[in-house]
Structures are given as structure tokens and as C-alpha cells.
């Protein structure tokens, strides 16, 4: 059985009230966001892992994420070696994410209408077959660039259905009390896998080639299916499937636009996705053309990003308040770190900048994801998350080839400066717009020190839009 909710020492009554309000509010209402008002003790940083179903899911997900990162790194490096073109790497990224750009809302509609667990089992089975096909082609030395393109496109079609269901399934595993924490645990798992996966991929690419990385991902996808089958269905927090009716996609779109806590994270995710989420493409250019570090160096740079992202995921799990300013600040700082990396004089300094970039990228992504999910009703959450993923994943389909072209035809330093500069400028612009509307305000606070009474002026940004 799922553990009882945290005691009053850890979750305040407004949090409990907000969960009840969210469950009862109609689709057109703006619901309050569940905010943990006290900082959790360290032993409760990942409290959602107390839930048996989520713990099993997280273990399987961790193994799968390591293998997924291995496949991503191996796939990008293989295309670079076969074609000699960074633009070709960008095209691979685009083909993998392009289906989400056009078909994402239909994937969300499926997540609202059908059982999420069954959807994930089918999607992971298909992903295993695709990874196995890549492995056979690579190990038999018959693989060509068009093979990678075709399988990347097929995997993108699987992602269209898999990602919205996966996002919503977290709530079914842990219930509303632990949803925010579970989202952070998922991010931590993904980034810890991203720390280990690229390092293992670098070793495999150097030692035996890309084929074994693809084979490992095929096995990992099968292990994910096994963990899904092990879940206790009677302990899932199931929601009634949405009945099929006309205008379901339009309803989700109107719902998202009507809520500031969905619309603004959605907008910021667009700028970040198009310009700054294709970082592996740029890292391939830096590893190959700037530092001549080879496959091992490419894996190392990706691991540095994942190291910072892991720290960001842990920090987000302990975040006290969930506010719109967290989204804007995270996007702005991520862009700023990428701009600073363009000025790095050596690979050591560039790696350090990648750690900071990974940290702020995860702070933004978890804040945006949590805000969008906790701002939407369960009956429409699949469609809302699919629209968010259309922007986040589909934006990479546009940004991958664009950033690859910039890195190849201009230079990698200018490309990564543009990659960070546009989201940073967008964050400043959004902050100014919100401030002018009164949704983001400056607050002057006087505090008094103990022993030496004096007034100290502190400056903070307070977001009024929380729901």
C-alpha cells in the first residue's frame, strides 16, 4: 500500500486544501498550485520513493535512461563519423523530434482516453525493436546514414505517444501528495543516467563501436516493460478516461492559453527548446572541431552537463515554493551560462561551464514541468502536457538542424552564444512584461539582525501568478 501523506510538520494545510480544490474544480477553473511551505528534511528529499509502485518504476526507468543516453551519444557520433557533417547530426535530431511537433496533441488525447500503463508497455516494446534493428545494422557493418534517419523518425513516432502518457503516469503512481517530488525524482533519475550513459557510450565507442550501445538500449527497453508488468494495479491512482468527443484538442489548447501558469512556461519552453535544447549537437562540434577530443571527449562533455543537471534535479526536489519566477529565472540563467561557455579559453573551463549550464537547465525544466502539471485537471492533463511537449520536443526538431548549420558554417563558439543569448533575452523580456502587468513585482523587505539591531534592505522578486 502507498504510505500515508507527510505529517503536518512537513506539509501545511493549504497544500492539502489545494489538492482537494484541484480534484473538485471544473475544467474552466484556475486551480491553486500545491506548494510545500516548509523545507523538507534531507531524509525526505526523495520521499516519493516510499511508494512501492513508483520505486519499482524508478529503478526500471534508471536502467532504461542509462541505455537511452548511450544510444543517443552513439547515434549522434555514428552519424558524424559516417557523414562528416554536424548538420547531418542536427537532421538526425530533427527527425527524431519532428513527429512530436505535428502529432503531439493526438498523443496527449490518447493519454487522456486510454490506460497509461498499457500505452507505455506498447511504446517500450516498439522502442526495443527499433534499438535492436540499429544494433544489427551497426554490428554487421552495413549501417548507413539513411538507416539512422529512418529509425530516428520511427522512434519519434513512438515518442509522440510515449511521452504524454509517461508524464501523466507519474500522478497515477504516487497520487497528488507526492507528484511534485516524483517529478523531481524522475528528473534526478534521468540526469544521473545522463551522467553514466555518455561516459559508458564513450568507452564503448572507443572500444567496440556503436552497435553494442544500441543493443544495450534494446535490452533496457525490455526491462522497462518488465517493471511495468510488476506494478500493482490496485495501488495505482487511476483517473476515469476522458470520453471521446469532438473538439478535444481545441479544448486543451484553449485551456492552456487561459492559464498564466501554463501559458508562460509554455512560451519560455519554446525559446529554450528551439535554441538551447540541441546542446548535444553543439557539443559534437566542440569535441570534434574545437578540442579534437574524439568520442571520449564528446561523452565527457555530455557527462558534465548531466552532472550539473543532477545537482539541479536534487535542488528542485527541495524547492520550497513553486512560482512563475522560478521558470523565468531558470531559463535566463541557463541561457547566460551558455553565453559564458562561448568565452571559455580551454576545454577545462568549457566543461565547468557545461556543469553550470546543466544545473540551470534542470532548474528550468522541472519548474516548468511541475507548474504545468499542477495547474491542470487530471481529465485534461494528457492534452495539456502533450501541448507542452510539442513545444519542448518539437522545438528541438527545428533547433537541431539550425544549430548544427550555425556550428558548421559559422563557428561553434558563435553558435553556442546564440544558443544561450536568445533564451536569456526572452527571459528578460518576459520578466519585464510580467512586471508591467503586475504579475511580477519587486518587493523591498526590512529584516532585523539579532544582537545588533539594524534594518537591512533586501530585494526579492515576488510572483503573484501562482495558479
Report low-confidence residues grouped into runs of 5 or more: 1-38, 444-467
Largest sheet: 2 strands, antiparallel
Biggest sheet: strands side by side, in what order? 1-2
CATH class: Mainly Alpha
Helix content: over 70%
CATH 2nd-level architecture: Up-down Bundle
Overall morphology: globular
Distance between the termini: 31 Å
Rg: 22 Å
Number of structurally distinct domains: 1
Assign the CATH superfamily.
MFS general substrate transporter like domains
List the helices and strands and how they pair.
Layout: H1 13-24, H2 52-83, H3 86-113, H4 116-139, H5 145-174, H6 179-207, H7 211-230, H8 248-258, H9 260-276, H10 279-290, H11 294-317, H12 324-341, H13 347-374, H14 381-409, H15 412-436, E1 440-448, E2 455-463
Antiparallel strand pairs: 1-2
